[in-house]
Amino acid sequence: MIDSIPKELLKNSVVKTIVILNCFSFEKPRLRIKEISSMTGISQPTVHRLLNILKQFNLVEQHEELYLLGRGFLKYEGIVLKSMEIRRISLPYMEQLANLLKINVNLAILDDNEVVFIARAENLYCTHSYYHIGMKRPIHCTAVGKVLVCKSPQIIHKLFEHGVHQYTMNTITDENVFLEEMNKIRLQGYAVDFQEWNNSINCVASPIINPAGEIVAAISISGSSNVYTVEKMENYIPHVVDYANRISSILEY
């Protein structure tokens, strides 16, 4: 985590504080000082001092020996989301698509080597909720992840170079096989994830492209594999592609 940061910057307390905050994740929302120190290479006394400063601003909370992100961050979430133009433009179309197909619709972007979901349109007929705003998921086994990197071979190579996790029997873990799928996705304009990340979820995604031809986001539909079977999801593909194209066309203006 800390290896990519120049050593001269690590002398700065602000940089150290940011590095500490980045230790918290959905997988590890609660951490001890010893764990943070081990993850960052920052001494335990320094970690303790910086955490105490963050506590004063409600950015960190402490429960006995465990630390977690505080409620102070909540006020920033709405500000960040409201400032994202792609989210504002996409939401009305996502809601239309959710009502048309009676399924949940997601909007995602790349964040380093992960997918982060920034908006969601839910439908009452699709009761299962697998995604929430701010949640991160792997690139290689999600439909949105595949769409977002299908034109980025350097990201793909780096991803597989560091090793990818096999979540189900359908997860692609071979780089060459994955690159072949990327070629297909670029040609057809959509990607699928049929129980690749989770055995009970099927997804279809299509890219949102800006006027420069860059993939800036992706929309996806997702639902229980028992209800939204592969055959049903395949029938929905033209609608997902159509609405992604509609959002892309709005970006031109």
Explain the layout of strands and helices.
Layout: H1 13-21, H2 33-40, H3 44-56, E1 60-63, E2 66-69, H4 74-83, H5 85-101, E3 104-111, E4 114-121, E5 136-137, H6 143-149, H7 153-161, H8 175-188, E6 191-194, E7 201-209, E8 215-224, H9 230-251
Antiparallel strand pairs: 1-2, 3-4, 3-8, 4-5, 6-7, 7-8
Question: Spans of 5+ residues with little confidence (pLDDT < 50)?
Answer: none
How would you write the strand order of the largest sheet? 5-4-3-8-7-6
CATH class group of the largest domain: Alpha Beta
- What amount of the residues lies in strands? 15-25%
Which structural class should the secondary elements be placed in? alpha+beta
Count of the domains: 2
Proportion of residues in helical segments: 40-55%
State mean pLDDT (0 to 100 scale): 87
In sequence order, what are the helices and strands, one letter per element?
HHHEEHHEEEHHHEEEH
* Main sheet specs: 6 strands, antiparallel
What overall geometry do the principal axes of the alpha carbons give? globular
Continuous helix count = 9
User: What is the first-to-last residue Cα distance?
Assistant: 39 Å
CATH superfamily membership of the largest domain = GAF domain
Number of strands: 8
Over the alpha carbons, how many angstroms does the gyration radius reach?
20 Å
**Architecture of the largest domain, CATH level 2?**
2-Layer Sandwich
What is the CATH topology assignment of the largest domain? Beta-Lactamase
